[in-house]
Amino acid sequence: MATVPQGNQEKPRFGPSDRLLAMFRACCRDPIEGIKARLKCMLHMFLLHHWDNVGNEKTKELAVKCCGEAGIWYYRILENLVSQERKRLGISDISGILEVDLIQRCLVACCLEITICSKPLPYDFPLLLQILKLAPYHFWRVIELVLRAEAGLPNAVITHLAQVDEKVLESLAWTSDSPLWEEIRANEGHLPTCQQVMSPAQLEDPKRTDLQPEQNLPEVNVRLGADFSASTDQQCSLSAVNRPQRSSGLHLFARKVYTLMGRRLREAVLHTGYF
Prior knowledge:
By secondary structure, the chain is mostly helical.
């Protein structure tokens, strides 16, 4: 299965489009050099793992191909995200968002994961995050953003990201060194309750089960950058101090956890046949 973006009139290319470059130039600080350097460094880390640890030439060739496809996805998804944020915020300068290193590193990693899932490379998630030195909890936060930004993902990729999402929710985010615990401590030491993060309609609906990006989330609003850094420009309105309580990454995480728990309980009940 090819994972190179399809459907554009122009042939996919490794690099920012003219439209994305124009949006970069509209920023008070053009982020293109930093973005290119970060992408090159992360793809190099990925390739080094295969050069140092894998002797199979075919696997090395697949890794190189993955890097090329991941770069194409990265610039395409980044363009969609930038366009959406400019429209949502009503401003043209979003350099404060583009300069949040953690967002961009997680986005590159997600684009690599998109390409890896279609290649017979000899490892499973979350090895990629170990190679790139990223926490699963941080990586998890970009999955929803990517699904919202890119409608052209193959069904197999969406299914794979759903499986990754569940792995993080059920176990990978809960390791002793996870950044999740810092956010729980900052939230008076506990995970938000289901009543705090889900509307009454959500609590009463027994069929909310999948990862598909939701169009209306009044209780938990996913915003680019809001959950990764409180140091972005004030003009972007992404300060952790000013954002609504229920728009934080921790509240989104809690909502996803409760949704997964509800689905697992319903599946268990159906399997046992008690009801």
